[in-house]
Amino acid sequence: MVEDIGKVTEIKNRIATVEIPQKTTCSGCLAKGICFPNAAGRNIIEAENILDAKKGDTVKVSVRTSISLKAGLLLFILPVVFFIAGFLLVQIFVNSELAGFGGGIVFLIGSFFFLKFLNNKISKGAGFKPIITQILRDMKSYIDPVCGMEIDKETAPAVCIYRGEKYYFCNSNCYEKFIKNLSFI
Ligand SMILES: [Zn+2]
């Protein structure tokens, strides 16, 4: 399970568009260089809005990876299982290894169609879609616009006001990066 924190920018039916900073740690932010709100390089994720989040909410988004792992495993194991099953089944009725081998091949081909059918079914389901697992409505919860870290507004070490909006930062490094970036505009 991969988790990310981002801001809901749009709600359409039960799908929420969530903007997620590419890096969620300060160290990653340092490696990446300067970033600021709405800059390119932010990830847009479409998540299932099962908790009824509103536009502007800060939310936690989870992507289930275990299902795709299982699907990957199935992709390798299923054809083998089908081949053996076909081989044994034909050998029971026709006592010939060659016929059994043929049966195995037929079942092997069948397994690919079965996998294709399964794949269509899984990708249509909600399993692979990111899901909003938590709404961080608490006013204290805030995302550092530079590094994407979740911080507390009240204890934020650095604050700045830009074009009427208040921005909070996890440390002075992020604050300075933000300020430096503004001077280029
Ligand atoms: Zn930061």
In brief:
With 185 residues, the chain is α+β, with helices and mostly antiparallel strands. The chain has two domains: 2-64 and 128-184, OB fold (Dihydrolipoamide Acetyltransferase, E2P), CATH 2.40.50; 69-124, no CATH class.
CATH topology of the largest domain: OB fold (Dihydrolipoamide Acetyltransferase, E2P)
User: Which class of secondary structure composition applies to the elements?
Assistant: alpha+beta
Query: Which ligands does the model contain, each kind named once?
Result: zinc ion
Count of beta strands: 9
Strands of the widest sheet, in order across it, are 3-2-1-4-5
Shape: rod-shaped
Q: Which second-level CATH architecture of the largest domain applies?
A: Beta Barrel
- CA radius of gyration is 25 Å
Amino- and carboxy-terminal Cα gap = 38 Å
Average pLDDT works out at 78
Low-confidence stretches: 24-40
- The structural domain count equals 2
Give the helix level as a range of percent. 40-55%
Number of helices: 4
Beta-strand percentage range: 25-35%
Order of helices and strands: EEHEEHHEEEEEH
Instruction: Please identify the top-level CATH class of the largest domain.
Output: Mainly Beta
What summary fits the major beta sheet?
5 strands, antiparallel
List keywords for this structure.
single chain; 185 residues; alpha+beta; OB fold (Dihydrolipoamide Acetyltransferase, E2P); 5-stranded antiparallel sheet; two-stranded antiparallel sheet; binds zinc ion
